[in-house]
Structure formats: structure tokens, C-alpha cells
Amino acid sequence: MIGRLLGPRRARQLQRFVRNGKLTILCLLLTVIMFRGYLGAGRFGTPEKDLDDIRVTLSYIRKRPEPRRVLEEAQGELKSAENAGAGSNNYADFDIRKILRDEDDGVEEFKRDPSQPYSLGSEISNWDEQRAKWLQSNPKFPNFIRENKPRVLLVTGSSPKPCENPVGDHYLLKSIKNKIDYCRLHGIEIFYNMALLDVEMSGFWAKLPLIRKLLLSHPEVEFLWWMDSDAMFTDMAFELPWERYKDVNFVLHGWDEMIYDQKNWIGLNTGSFLLRNCQWSLDILDMWAPMGPKGKVREEAGKVLTRELKERPVFEADDQSAMVYILATQKEKWASKVYLENAYYLHGYWGILVDKYEDMIESYHPGYGDHRWPLVTHFVGCKPCGKFGDYPVERCLKQMDRAFNFGDNQILRMYGFTHDSLGSRSVRRIRNETSTPLAVRDELGLLHPAFKAVKV
Amino acid sequence: MGSGGAFPAQKRSSGVLPMVNGGARGRAAPLLPRGRQIHKTFHNVKITILCGFVTILVLRGTIGIGSLVTSEADAENQHLIEETNRIIAEIRSDRDPSDPDEGPERFLGLNDTFSLGPRISNWDEDRKVWLEKNPRFPSYVNGKPRILLVTGSQPTPCDNAIGDHYLLKALKNKIDYCRIHGIEIMYNMAHLDKEMTGYWAKLPLLRRLMLSHPEVEWIWWMDSDALFTDMVFEIPVSKYKDYNMVIHGYPDLLFEQKSWISLNTGSFLFRNCQWSLDLMDAWAPMGPKGPLREEAGKILTANLKGRPAFEADDQSALIYLFLSQKEQWMSKVYVENSFYLHGFWEGLVDQYEEMIEKYHPGLGDARWPFVTHFVGCKPCGSYGDYPVERCLKSMERAFNFADNQVLNLYGFRHRGLASPNIKRIRNETVAPLVNVDQFDIRHAARHTTEPQS
């Protein structure tokens, strides 16, 4: 019909055009279907859901998708469907981000001048004199509780926001209980930090501004003991050998050869260390801080550290590697006041300790602090508060339970109880109640230990 | 595509569906020149290949035939998800895999008697002798009596992660107060007695601690859902030198109305002495799990005003004990309400901003509550008595309200009461000790307490 109207050649052209058109449309349709499948908008979702999926997929592509999704999917089964609204009494489906928000309460904020190079605070050069004067005028706050027993402040902390891992907060709670127990026995005060003092010094660097602030605000404290939140006390009876440290200012677990000769990045550990409250410490903190500020500074510093230190993998600068670098390159300046302790486990890597607890219970007793009965078991790499750590989840959490119970048994024994086993939460009695409780002596003598006695 | 087939019938059939290889077949084929035929075949093959390619891509996208390539990663993910689920469920369940099978639980019958331990009758003398023999563990240090704050929570993770997070924050809050005031903390996470469970678990625990620590003068029990909100206020222990127990409550509600909430056992102190042991022995019998607790609950509901029907709880039992044996106990019990040793949260949490404006820490009463107690919120369980959002928001506010008082020494403050983030409110200086003298709560006692700005 069209051929009759337009003439044969024209008709043919038209038909060719129509055929091409049909082909193009068909191919377009197939392309759309293909894209729909790829971008995850398939599976018979509604157009709105499709858009959501696209947005989500694109944002996943920006971050590391898999681990986060795994944990969220794992949580998905525990959460119920939709939030029932503001009136819900059910804690399961509540998103805490609804209530956390910054507000301005009118109090003036002081910000650091960003044009200036980073510094932890105004430079102080006479801290020893200032502090000595203060101690003299405050005899009720001595820096030594007894002869050879300095006043110690144990500092640890965690994020003020809930953990990303649903059981992370539970392990933080157990960890701080463990520290409370040790410190109560040994007359040590605790500061649990939940505040990020300096946004630039985030992550593992957050301890630096905190330590400096605490040293300057607590002149009565002689030693500040930093301890990571993933480290637990496993020897409740071991008292630190304070006389050994009377001439040094910085005690870390490590080995001299590994730092000064090999420059090994794990030659020392900054997860558990002691720092004296003095001018020297302020100086080393000032020397330590420059590699910390988030962003380009930290990245560049990381490259320097990977290059200079043995076996360090490639990642941004961390406080531990920075300290190794400082000590190795400025040995003459600092080494005389640094003590690298390895006679006991001021920091004990968990991997080599946790399987031996039963052997230890059989062959030894608390009080050694070393490989026979470690003072501290440090769960490096487990990251129970984060999404995923460097080790399998099951091993980490089970072993943290065991280490906690191993330490807790020493506390419970004082009261006549013990855990059913190292993996069990329930406790059983090992000593009956009597009508003369004061006649009973606890074997380890931890109820009234010498290191807790007051000066008479 | 422009095969110029001269026959309209052919074109029609081949134009509609290019996938149909109908072009070259059919009656007209032998009549076409060879070149044309080859061209047509080639053309059809091209289309076939193109369509086949597109089909594969579509299938890959929608049905996931491409999962043959990525199946390894998916399988690993699946495995991770399953493992994580299993571990979390195992950790959350009450049943320990390593626990021996105990068989059916045996409850104490109604005719059985329960006791916390062998009767002790001369604890005061024993304790005095011990203190004399151990002068290095005195019961008074720097003129203040030794106080032990006892609190705790269940050994298993809370039903929801947010519960553990607020337990952690509440513990930090207690650590801060106790550090400032020289009080020791004992955080319990063990069920010491299988019969005295739930709120009754504090009785065997407190008794055990009293007997193991004769050097402790006062034991202070505090619930895990109570927060300190006045970091400066100190309990006026000298006021209680003739008393053995300090508990928040209202005497008229107690004696005249016999109300079941006339006293609060979420925060109370008692002295380490024989009287306290006797009180606990008299208090305990309503506690053992099972028929004893159920029956006791009925008696309490019948006798106390406003009490709903549920099993016996320690608070109602104590009130009933005080009412029925008033002469024996009340002379040594101080019912305190001049400050908020326990402060019910609902009436307090909205006033924090007003308090900051008008008053200052150190008052401990309605103007600046000592303790804000989140009764009924139960963040560690699955359901509370109040809307979740209100409870959690209020707990966060109370925590930050208190934390501001701690951070004040360091020159920081929260960005509003609902924020976990902080801001600097005082610059670093080269003479930090001036600030220490002014702002450290322990030293501030020497100077006049200045109003909080």
C-alpha cells in the first residue's frame, strides 16, 4: 500500500528504515533489561525500590562492600520489620542515630588555628618545677602513696557511639570490669575516656592529646598507664616492680635489639605502657604527635615509616610505628629514659597465650606475670567493637571469654567461687559459708594484699 | 540490513522479527543470485550472533549465570553470615555449651527455709578485733569512712546491643564519680546463688562482700540503670552516725499509705555490722525462686498499696518487713529525702538545661539531682515500660549532663546534651595548674564553689 503511494524505491527505503527502527528499539529494550539486571534493580522490585538499590549499590562501590553487608545481613534476622514509630517499647529495632545530635548551647568554643602546624598544646618548658611546687602546697595529694608505690592512673577508653559489632559493647563492658578489679586490688585509679579531644588526632592517635591533658590536669599522678580496651589483666596478683623504674620515664613492652638494631615495627607495643608525669614526657609527646594529624600528613608519614621500618606493611602512620621510628633514629636523646620491658608481659600477644591457660592453672599460680602466668593478654587485631578484625570472629570472642574468666577466677576465688570452666559464664561455690568468715584465708591473699595497704 | 529482496512476502516476514532466520529459506531461495544469498546468510548470522550475545548478557544480569564466576565470593559471604549469626546467637543464649546438663530445676518448696549462710551472731566484735589487728586496712581513711559501691549486670550480652552500650556508659559514669570521691567499685557479673536470681541477687552478693571486707564501713548498692548527675555532691555520712541504713523514700508514704514505692532499693547504703546481717537474714526469705517467691508476691500485693500482681521483689519485701517489724528495725533506718539518693528520671531529665542556667552542682536535690535513676527503662531487655526513644534519649542526656561536670576540669564540654561529641571551652595554657586548682572538684572544696556557667 505504501509502495503504491510513494513508489517502489521509496517504499523499500521506508521499509528498511522501519526494519532498522524496530531493530534499534529491540536492542534498546534488551540493553535496558541488561542494565536493570546489573545494577541490582532486578528481582521484580518496584521502581522506587529500584532507585534505592541503585543508590545503595553505587555507595557500596565507593566503600568496601562485603564485610559491612555481611554484618548487616547477619543483624537483619535479629531486627524486626519496620520501626513502629516513636511510641515503640521494643529495643530491637531502634536506631540510636535518631537521638544523637550536636546542638549549640551558647558556650564559646575555642578552635585550633588551622594555619599553624599541628601541636598538642602551648609549649611548656618548666613542668617539673610547676609540678613540684604544686605537690608541696598540696600535701593531701602526694604523688607517692607509700614508699616505692607511686600514684598511678590507668587510662583506657572507647568510642562514645555504640559499637558496629552487636556484641562489641558487651566485651568492652567485660574488659573494663576486668580492669576495675585489678585496679581495685592494686590501689590504682581509672580514667575511662569516651571523648574525642581532637578531631585531627583520631583513631589510635587519640590517646596522645588525652594523655597530655591528663598529665597536666593531674599533677598528683606519678605514672600514667595507658591500656587499650582490647587488653585484659590475667594476673591479678602481680604488682609492677616500681623500684625498677625509678630512673626511667617511659616503660613499654619490647626488645632493645628489635628497636635499635632491627628497627622492627613490632619491636615494642603501645597498647600498654607507663609514662611518668614530667617534662621529659611532655617533650616526647610533642615529638610523637607530628605524624598523627589525619589526612595527608598521616599518609605521607605512613610511607616514610614503611620505608624505614622492618616488615611494616603499607598503611597510614600509626602511633606504634612512629614511636619505633623516633627511638631508633634519636636513640641518644631518648633511650636513656626508656625501658623496654620483657621480663613480664606488660603486653602479652594473645595468640601465643590463650591456649595454654589450662596448663598454667595446672603447673603455676598467679603472681609471676610472665609466660607462666601472663599479666596482660592483649587481643591485638581482634577489634571486637569494629566490623571485622584480622582474625576469625569465633576464635577472638571465645578466647576473650576465656581470658576474662581466667582473670575473673582469681577475683571470685577471694569470695569462694569460681567459673565452671574457662568457657563458661556460670560460677560454682568452692568454699562453703561459715560462721567465722574472718578465720578463712584466701589462698592468694588478694583480699588484703600488701600492695593495697595504706601508710600508717 | 538492506537486503533488497524483491518479493514483498519475504520482506514482511523477515522485517518483523530479525531473529527469525526465515530470510534465506523458503521458496524464493533458488531464484536469488548466489551473492545475494551469501550476503543474506552473512547478514542473518550477524544478527544471530548479536542477539545471542545480548541474550547472554541479559541472562547474566537478571538470572545471574555469571554467578559461576563470582560464586566463590558469594559462598564465602554466605559462610561468614552463617558463622556470625551462629556465634552471636550462642553468645546471647543463656545456655552455655560447656555447662554440664543439670536436669530439671528444683525449687525450694513452701515449707523449706532459705538462709543466706550460717548464722553469725558476733560480727561487731569480730570486726573490731580484725581492724585492730590490721591497722594498715583501716575503716576510716583521711577522716572519711571507707565506702564500697556495688553494682552489676547479667553475665550474658543484653538482648540488644544498645543495652550493653548504656551499661558501659553507666559504669563509666560511676567510675568517674568514685574516682573523684575516693570510693571503690565492685562490678558483679556472676550469679552467686541459683535461687536468689534477678533483683534478689544483690542480697547474697552484699552479704558476701561485707564479710570478706571488714575494712569497708559502708556498702552502697546502686542499680545499673542509675546514673550520678551531681559529681560534686558527697553523701553527708556524719549525719548517719547513729544509723545503719540509708535509703531514699518518704515516711508518710511508708507508714500511713503503705505504698509499695515508698522506698527505693535501687540506691541505698548500709553499714557493715551485725544489724545489717540480721536485716538481710530477715529480708531474704521472700526471695528464693519458685513457689516461695510467687506466694510471697501475693502477700505483698495484698498488703501494700498500689502493688500490681507479680512475684515478690526485694523492694516490696523490704517495705513489708519494715511495716510489720517497725520497732525492731526503723530506729536504725534513715529514710532520706533531702537529696536524691535515688531520683526518678521522668521528672528530672527535661529540666537539665534549666538547672544549668539557674543552679550549680553540689546541691544534690531537686535543683541538681544527685542520682537520676532510670526505673522501668530496662535497656538491657527487649521491652521497657516506657517508649524506647524517650528512655534512650534521656539516658544520653543524663550521661552527658554528668560528663560535662567531669570534662570541665579538662576544658571540654559536650555539644549539647544529646551529643557524644565535645568541644573545647578553654584554651591550652602554659600554666595549667591554675585551672586545676580552680576546676578540680576535689580541690574546689577549698575554694567557694562557683556557679556553673
From TrEMBL, chain A:
Matches recorded under Pfam families: Glyco_transf_34
- UniProt keyword Membrane, yes or no: yes
Where does the protein end up?
Golgi apparatus membrane
**Keywords of the record:** Glycoprotein, Glycosyltransferase, Golgi apparatus, Membrane, Signal-anchor, Transferase, Transmembrane, Transmembrane helix
Q: How does it sit in the membrane?
A: Single-pass type II membrane protein
In short, the EC number is 2.4.2.39
Cellular compartments per GO CC: Golgi membrane
What domain of life is recorded for the organism? Eukaryota
Question: Its catalytic activity?
Answer: Transfers an alpha-D-xylosyl residue from UDP-D-xylose to a glucose residue in xyloglucan, forming an alpha-(1->6)-D-xylosyl-D-glucose linkage
Could you confirm whether the keyword Transferase appears in this record? yes
Which InterPro entries does UniProt cross-reference here?
Answer: Glyco_trans_34, Nucleotide-diphossugar_trans
Q: Where is the signal peptide?
A: none
* One Gene Ontology term of the molecular function aspect: xyloglucan 6-xylosyltransferase activity
Q: Which residues cross the membrane?
A: 21-39
Tell me, what is an example of a GO biological process annotation in this record?
Answer: xyloglucan metabolic process
Family assignment? Answer: Belongs to the glycosyltransferase 34 family.
What protein does this entry describe?
xyloglucan 6-xylosyltransferase
Q: Which organism is it from?
A: Salvia divinorum
Q: Which gene encodes it?
A: XXT1
TrEMBL record, chain B:
Name of the gene = XXT5
Give one Pfam hit by family name: Glyco_transf_34
Which key words tag this protein in UniProt?
Glycoprotein, Glycosyltransferase, Golgi apparatus, Membrane, Signal-anchor, Transferase, Transmembrane, Transmembrane helix
Which parts of this chain are annotated as the region Disordered? 1-20
| Annotated EC | 2.4.2.39
Protein family per UniProt: Belongs to the glycosyltransferase 34 family.
InterPro entries (alphabetical)? Glyco_trans_34, Nucleotide-diphossugar_trans
Cellular-component GO terms for this entry:
Golgi membrane
Q: Which GO terms describe its molecular function?
A: xyloglucan 6-xylosyltransferase activity
A single BP term in Gene Ontology = xyloglucan metabolic process
Which reaction equation describes what this protein catalyses? Transfers an alpha-D-xylosyl residue from UDP-D-xylose to a glucose residue in xyloglucan, forming an alpha-(1->6)-D-xylosyl-D-glucose linkage
- What is the protein's name according to its record? xyloglucan 6-xylosyltransferase
Q: How does it sit in the membrane?
A: Single-pass type II membrane protein
Location(s) in or outside the cell: Golgi apparatus membrane
